[in-house]
Amino acid sequence: RPRSHTVTTTSSSFTANLSASSSTLAYDREFLRTLPGLLMVTEIVLGLLVWTLIAGTEYFLYPAFGWVMFVAVFYWVLTVFFLIIYMTMTYTRIPQVPWTTVGLCFNGSAFLLYLIAAIVDASSVTKELDSHNYNSWAASSFFAFVVTSCYAGNTYFSFISWQSRTLQ
């Protein structure tokens, strides 16, 4: 005698929303016209200058410049990552992440560690240390302070955004 089999399938709302939202990739070109967007692009360009100016020298012989390289490369990669997140509006697809808090923590830590790295960089630049690398290290020190001020600006904007979210 033939048996009857019933198969029931269910779909969770999470997978339905994920498949519906991931089918289109948003692009927010207006982000680059905002002050935080411009600061982020400036951080990327000048941060690249900081670590390439140091990487072109024998920085590995001096531990202070190794620290500066770590901070510059680490925050350069993360800033590129966050720029992609903001440009593709990925933050709208992952509402479980408190993006204003993440942005505040990221920009605040970048400001603090870049400030320390810029001071270390500037205090380590001497003609006696290695004269043929002097100009590169001096330039990297200048740009490190400029990038630090950009991260300070973005920290301010992140704080304003975070504060407005917590008051709601």
What are the salient characteristics of this protein?
168 residues; mainly alpha; 68% helix; elongated; CKLF8 protein; transmembrane; membrane
Explain what the structure shows.
The chain is an all-alpha fold. Among the domains are: 27-93; 97-124. The protein has helices at 13-21, 35-55, 63-87, 99-124, 134-167. It is elongated, with a radius of gyration of 23 Å. The relative contact order is 0.15. Residues 7-22 have low confidence and may be disordered. This is CKLF8 protein. It is a multi-pass membrane protein. Pfam families: MARVEL (PF01284).
Which helices and strands occur, and which strands form pairs?
Layout: H1 13-21, H2 35-55, H3 63-87, H4 99-124, H5 134-167
Helix pairs in contact: 2-3, 2-5, 3-4, 4-5
- Number of DSSP strands? 0
| Largest sheet properties | none
Count of helical stretches: 5
- SS-based class: mainly alpha
Order of helices and strands: HHHHH
| Measured distance between first and last alpha carbons | 65 Å
Relative strand content: under 5%
Shape: elongated
Percent range of helical residues: 55-70%
Q: pLDDT under 50 segments (min length 5)?
A: 7-22
Overall pLDDT = 85
Radius of gyration: 23 Å
Keywords: Membrane, Transmembrane, Transmembrane helix
Membrane topology: Multi-pass membrane protein
Protein name: CKLF8 protein
Domain MARVEL: 31-163
